[in-house]
Amino acid sequence: MADLLIDVGNTLTKVAIWEGEKARQLFKLPTLSFLSHPELLTEKLKSFVWKRVGISSVVREATDALRKIFPDATFVSADLDLPIKIDYKTPETLGADRIANACGGLEFGESFAVVSAGTAVVVDLVRDSVFQGGVIFPGLKTMAKALNLETSQLPEIEILQRFQIPGKSTTECIESGILVALIGGIKETLKTYNINTILLTGGDSKILRKFLREIILVPDLTLKGIRKVLESNPPLLRGDN
């Protein structure tokens, strides 16, 4: 029987069924919609059957709601038995998504970097199956929103992947500045890590992929990691669905 996997991000919540050796994504919904109407999730899952539930959540309110819906679920955290070791000063503050991504990356070897591009962009390092920490940048949309909120005249823009330097309009200048800052920061971090295998995941990964060479795009990396955590922490088998 399959495993139910749920990945709650700041923007989107992804739900998948793991069957055999891969995840089959069932649906996505805005995390805010789930928080407002938790019944949306249970309604969409009515026709599915699963054995175990694994959850990665970076939104506390969503975690609380999911604990009520799935009391026997395994929630990814540093407290569990993990397929990696964690070398981090404050493991209790380490995001579940970062842990899941690090575990999922083991499919590609024992040493690698993970670039997770979402509301925040995280560049983490795993060396010899030990999570070493990372760097956190504001994401593309977060930077664009911050410039708009903290200035009186700069508009909030949509990132259209125009790389015009020097920019010939205010919109071009903002977009180029955001892309240069983020891509430059990622490249400098990866240079410091000096690692051969680099994995890219997250909602904005396809945008960044165009500017980062020799990188492996893994859209379902978090789901892979949740499944690995489930394998390391066999929960009680779920009864009737």
Brief characterization of the structure:
The protein has 241 residues and is α/β, with parallel strands linked by helices.
Helix-strand blueprint:
Elements: E1 3-8, E2 12-19, E3 22-30, H1 31-36, H2 39-44, E4 52-57, H3 60-69, E5 74-75, E6 85-86, H4 96-104, E7 112-117, E8 120-127, E9 130-138, H5 140-150, H6 170-193, E10 198-201, H7 205-209, E11 216-217, H8 221-232
Parallel strand pairs: 1-4, 4-5, 6-9, 7-10, 10-11
Antiparallel strand pairs: 1-2, 2-3, 7-8, 8-9
Helix pairs in contact: 4-8, 5-6
CATH class call of the largest domain:
Alpha Beta
Looking at the overall shape, the CATH architecture of the largest domain is 2-Layer Sandwich
DSSP E strands, number: 11
- Label the structural class: alpha/beta
Within CATH, the superfamily of the largest domain carries the name: ATPase, nucleotide binding domain
Per DSSP, the total helix count is 8
Largest sheet: 6 strands, mixed
User: Which shape, going by the Cα principal axes?
Assistant: globular
- Residue share in helices? 25-40%
On the 0 to 100 scale, the average pLDDT is 92
What would you report as the Rg, rounded to the nearest angstrom?
19 Å
Strand content is: 25-35%
At CATH level 3, the topology of the largest domain is Nucleotidyltransferase, domain 5
Query: What is the CA–CA distance across the termini?
Result: 12 Å
SSE sequence, one letter per element? EEEHHEHEEHEEEHHEHEH
Q: Note poorly predicted spans.
A: 237-241
- Number of separate structural domains: 2
Record the strand order, biggest sheet.
Answer: 6-9-8-7-10-11
